[in-house]
Specification:
Layout lengths: L4 H5 L6 H22 L4 H19 L10 H11 L1 H10 L1 E5 L4 E7 L8 E8 L2 E9 L1
Antiparallel strand pairs: 1-2, 2-3, 3-4
Helix pairs in contact: 3-5
Length: 137
Amino acid sequence: MMESSWGRQHGLRVGTRKFLTGLGVIAVTSMGAVMAVMNPSQATYETYATQKVVALIDQNICVEAPKSFNLRQDCRSLIANNRSQIRQFIANNTSHQNFIFFSIYTTDVSVAAFLPNYRVETVGAFQRFYIYDTVRN
């Protein structure tokens, strides 16, 4: 058993098991509080998703554009100049489920009938995002 000299003087005895259980409860409660505080907001997700989409377009579409007629640079300018529209598109097509300690964001990406549609599922926790599923519809 764990007991301090102060506890002995005042007739208090705390068993090791109770002490460890109390310590565990405090640790779990503290971790839950940190997770709740660090649960990212919808606006933070929209910023993250916009950055991801812009980077993907730049790396996968603009890079493939021919350099002639300055098309590659025009592609990059088009993306940069329409960043707020991309963010609005993400905001309009994302559902958010808040579970206090973490959030799940589901974004449906459907641009045109002749292009493939995607559903991207992301978990947000500790002010970070992790894409855990991307499904082509």
